[in-house]
Specification:
Elements lengths: L2 H11 L4 H9 L7 H7 L13 H16 L8 H6 L13 H8 L16
Helix pairs in contact: 2-4
Protein name: DUF1456 domain-containing protein
Organism: Zobellia uliginosa
Pfam family, one: DUF1456
């Protein structure tokens, strides 16, 4: 198991989004962009795949400790931090195509039958 696999498994287990991982890395003064981060989570045969180095994973783990436990001056309870994650509400069911089209119809326009012009 390489660093990319460890990083992916932590991301899934802790339900972290890319912007949250970037924020966690900023806690230890390690700046990385979302696109660089996305390269770590790609498949190995993808052209933009990038190996996750030891330094990136080490800084992420150190930032994760600060994120979950806090600092000595401002300690946190890891359980509370994990429970504060907002739960995404269930998506509302979209109306089907026919009902969407019915809503778009202008009711003020009357149906008019057009007659073909006679050829002269």
């Amino acid at each position: 198991m390489d660093n990319n696999d460890v990083f992916k498994k932590l991301r899934v287990a802790l339900m972290l989004r890319d912007d949250e991982i970037v924020d966690i890395l900023k806690l230890v003064d390690f700046n990385i962009s979302k696109s660089e981060l996305g390269a770590f989570f790609r498949k190995e045969d993808h052209p933009n795949y990038r190996e996750c180095g030891d330094q990136v994973l080490r800084n992420f783990l150190n930032g994760l400790v600060i994120h979950l436990r806090g600092t000595k001056d401002n300690p946190k309870n890891p359980g509370e931090v994990l429970m504060k994650k907002p739960v995404k509400p269930l998506k509302q069911k979209r109306p089907d195509f026919k009902t969407q089209q019915q809503k778009r119809i202008n009711k003020d326009i009357t149906n008019v039958k057009y007659k073909n012009k006679k050829k002269s």
